[in-house]
Design a protein that fits this description.
Chain A has about 525 residues and is an alpha+beta fold. Chain A is about 30% helix and about 20% strand. In chain A, the strands form 3 sheets. An 8-stranded mixed beta sheet of chain A has the order 7-11-12-17-16-15-14-13, sandwiched between helices. The first copy, chain A, has a 5-stranded mixed β-barrel with strand order 2-3-4-6-5. A 3-stranded antiparallel beta sheet of chain A has the order 8-10-9, with no helix packed on it. At the A-B interface, helix 6, helix 7, strand 7, strand 8 and strand 9 of A face helix 6, helix 7, strand 7, strand 8 and strand 9 of B.
Chain lengths: ~525, ~525
Amino acid sequence: MNGENEQTEVPLGPDGKPLSKKAQKKQQRDAEKAAKKAERAAKTAAEAEVQEADDHAQDRYGMSKMIQSQEKLDRQMCRVKDLDLSKAKQTVWIRARVHTSRSKGKQCFLVLRQQHYNVQGLVAVGDIASKAMVKFAANISKESIVDVEGVVMEAKVESCTQKDVELHVHRIYVISSSEPQLPLQLDDAVRPITEEDEEAGPTVKQDTRLDHRIIDLRTTTSQAIFRLEAQVCQLFRETLNAKGFVEIHTPKMIGAASEGGANVFEMGYFKSKAYLAQSPQLYKQMAIASDFDRVWTIGSVFRAEDSNTHRHLTEFIGLDVEMAFNYHYHEVIDVIGDMFVQIFKGLQKRCVEEIAVVGKQYPCEPFKFLDPALRLEYHEGIRMLQEAGFEIGFDDDLSTPAEKLLGKLVKAKYDTDFFVLDKYPLEVRPFYTMPDPHNSKLSNSYDMFMRGEEILSGAQRIHDPELLIERAKVHGVGLESIKPYIDSFRYGAPPHGGGGIGLERVTMLFLGLDNIRKTSLFPRDPKRLTP
Amino acid sequence: MNGENEQTEVPLGPDGKPLSKKAQKKQQRDAEKAAKKAERAAKTAAEAEVQEADDHAQDRYGMSKMIQSQEKLDRQMCRVKDLDLSKAKQTVWIRARVHTSRSKGKQCFLVLRQQHYNVQGLVAVGDIASKAMVKFAANISKESIVDVEGVVMEAKVESCTQKDVELHVHRIYVISSSEPQLPLQLDDAVRPITEEDEEAGPTVKQDTRLDHRIIDLRTTTSQAIFRLEAQVCQLFRETLNAKGFVEIHTPKMIGAASEGGANVFEMGYFKSKAYLAQSPQLYKQMAIASDFDRVWTIGSVFRAEDSNTHRHLTEFIGLDVEMAFNYHYHEVIDVIGDMFVQIFKGLQKRCVEEIAVVGKQYPCEPFKFLDPALRLEYHEGIRMLQEAGFEIGFDDDLSTPAEKLLGKLVKAKYDTDFFVLDKYPLEVRPFYTMPDPHNSKLSNSYDMFMRGEEILSGAQRIHDPELLIERAKVHGVGLESIKPYIDSFRYGAPPHGGGGIGLERVTMLFLGLDNIRKTSLFPRDPKRLTP
């Protein structure tokens, strides 16, 4: 999966569509340019040595020794995002990547990047910079990391995030140089896919991105996605902690395939076997039986499911919630529903910039939700589908197309991208789901949806060991493998419920992205275990 | 490992020491009492039916139907910890466990528990309660969950956490009843081990606790331990987020045993193989190469190490930190050192109650630290050991006894339980450790210690691909297996460093506990995969 030549091998655009002639040509031109640039860089280095003797700027640029903590420098580094008119005429140091460099006569323009911020740098032949220094700057390979000393000057630079200033470079040293030929171009990687306009330029297909994930993650879009994803977790924690929840950690290696044998990864465990937990389900319930009252956990979840879709991963991050309640599991739905409302509100407040950055490449309607969250019953959902001409019965499980359509119908009727679907048929839910007290075909269970895709599955759980045994038998679950779990309800257990959320799905659907691989840092699917 | 009879089988105290005669007798008496109580409960239930006809309180007590969300009750439940004089004479509802029940003439005294809080309940024959109701209350098995309506009355109850009030019970219903015979007694499980005083009563040995973990977790000590552990994570996050770090999630299933083949769990991955990550090391570094600048991650870490000690687990929670720095890796030590100081300060401020509760069972000196944290160089540590008569050379790795002794020497000299040991010999560190620039035998690496045990290992990492390859070869690490990792430094990478912390060790050592199994919710070791 590390085909570094993949991009040049077959001239395909994203999603495997062949590139237009023009785009192909541009791609080729880019590659040629990069090669020439590398050649020039080598030549320049050689020339520089010759010229050194009569170079008045010779101490002002060069390749730095590898930083091995040789010395402690008392140098204040400035952040690129802080470069604005308030710093005009000040001399500052920054460490940044060379996003692009372009020479023009006796000048060299650099775009210096720090995460999703960038500023223009200017090296111009004169009292400070020499011709050799300009040449040196022009030949620094893209993505190299440089230390730059410069004076902040007023300027109008529309193409950078720091629009009001540029940096007049007085010193520039390469701290870590990039190989001249990149496996993918950052500018290509953030280009929106516009089917109408093939002139726009090449884009990068998903597998190339993932093979060279560390470059793809540097784009403004990726930086924004993962900073927003971190906020999803942060808001999840803040909201639940404020509601009296406690963080716990549950084991991933378990002695028995306790949630059913299918889709579970098996591993060696010293002289015996173990399995990777498909969820923290049983353990978070045991924490409730252990008097933790309300718990949450964030951790890896493993599914040995051979599903190669836009929304399945073999390893993802589960945000799990479980709580004791008093009399009715809607107490749980209320807590989780409000938690989602707080997450959505928080994201729209804290991540304005991130949402805008991602929207530039992947345009999408802003995420809509109601407060309090909308709760529909399963049979209402089925009826909406039937009325829309979709063939489905009241006891059937929802297929992916049914979920998608229901999401659209609910959006049209209630103007919300988020809703709770309550009271699923008992038959389609796991053995530990509490049956409905009034209708033996139904259960006290629910899913939650964002833009028509399931992001949480939850229920009231059975807290009575005898009923649990009865239901496990109906589902054909081996009692021996779940003995410690069942036993944990023998010494008094409060009624309780909860749910499990897929983090990457929440991020994907909040931002309206098309593939879960975009929201997993190093995604795992049946065909991908690297990088 | 689910031997419910284990405790009665061999009369051993904790750590396998045989119980004294007196303690043995007490244990036997307890078991007999419980059995008799169960018998009585069954008898009473039968009697109750007979008596029902002339029972004026017959609606005021009984077994509740299993709560299946039959109805939504608009009943305000009070928390036990909120029961004090401010509520005197008020009628309240609580849901709690019956910690103990004891009848005395026409009265029954209950201790009603909610996590680590408890209050006394009183059922007395009179206008409200009947003789049958008192009998019913007296026979509720320990650990059952009850709903109680009662009037808060002024009282002096030294043995409960709510000392100023008791609850005069008007109604009592069993919500979830416990089996009458518990696999371990909560009072035994919180009893301090006092070698001098065998009269104190039986304690519970570790394996019995772990086999019946959900009971053991209900003790005041366990509740306090895990609430404090949650605060360790919370303070870790707060401190790092305030310093500009971003949360990331790294894959646990990896394609190659990239940190060395020993001690790694192997698993099936569809038609191929995978390994469980021994740390997020390589991935957090790749996040730095991807411009995330400063990252942290909390997640499960797996070690297939056949170590059966007080401080090794096969699965634990890693708190990992990685950051780019400017010129010297001491920038990293300063950040991590200060982070620990903030964690210690935060725990001592927020967890006063938890520390006190744990200290009752496991007495221990309060944790001491300096601000800023003490940093010693490795050779200074070796010299202190040598001066104390310990045989060790400057190039030797520290053994566990050496670490323990050094901890004591440092405590005696500097009065701190926490310190950083810097500049380890290169030879004893992993291949990706940056060599010292001035002394080829040393490295830019450090460990951090709490009470003489290592809780963090960290270093400046090599960010130059050529040096990385050279060092991997020296260590005999297969280059093919780490190609994606090495390649991630080819396109510009900032100097960076970090460290990995074992959560359970931090909790254990902060509280001065003797075994890491006490600070892991459901611990995993070479011999234990359940519950």
